[in-house]
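Troubleshooting: if your tokenizer reports a length mismatch, compare your output against this known-good record of 263 residues.
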Amino acid sequence: MKSQSSQMLLAADDPPPVQVINPQGRSPFLLLGDHAGNLVPGALQRFGLGAEDMRRHIAWDLGTADLGEALSAALDAMFIRQTYSRLVIDCNRDPDAADAMPAISDGTVIPANGSLSDADRLARVAAIHAPYQSAIGAELARRDVLGRATTLVSLHSFTPVMNGVSRPWHIGVLYSEGDTRFSTKLLDLLREEDDLCVGDNQPYAMDATDFTVPRHAFSSKRRYAEIEIRQDLLSTHMDIRAWATTIANHLTQVDADLVENQV
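Known-good structure output:
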């Protein structure tokens, strides 16, 4: 494996770390995909893991890239997503956190992360994490200058079973500090669907481990929602289209209700 500290991590033939879908989107929603990609820079030579592991939930949030694109089309919304695996660097973690570049993930040893130097870690932050977060910040700043209200919608997915425990939820809404009115209203609306098992900060709570939404929404009091969908429910294009329709309808209704009530 080549040393990350002796050269730039991303070579000219590596894909850029950030992809922007529908940059001219007129929707008030800005869709985010912290874990949408599962690529590994060429310098890391597949990371010491096989292709099967790189397709597992440890490497990315399965289905979120396609869901984000479908939602982008349904809402006419911009979708900002990262390209590289969360095992290279987790863009929804503080880059200084130990689990930003985990040595073990769900029991699987990540060989390339076992003995990272400070220079190695900084190379990953500079090449992938910082550009992704900067792209989000720049777009929000651009909209703020134009006076465009924006609601952040961060898209994630979760494995049906974790540590031997089945997870019954179909979808979860995560929220914590800042302006939670959009998140909680979305949660209430989803719970009106009789065929959905909806998690309130389940299967994960939005806590100190989250980075993207807290960074860009909390202090600015920007509306937001972090959405988690169970991965087995995103396994086909038909599933993804159905979820995109459901979520788009609910997001639009919540936004209209808040505008109408001037909340």
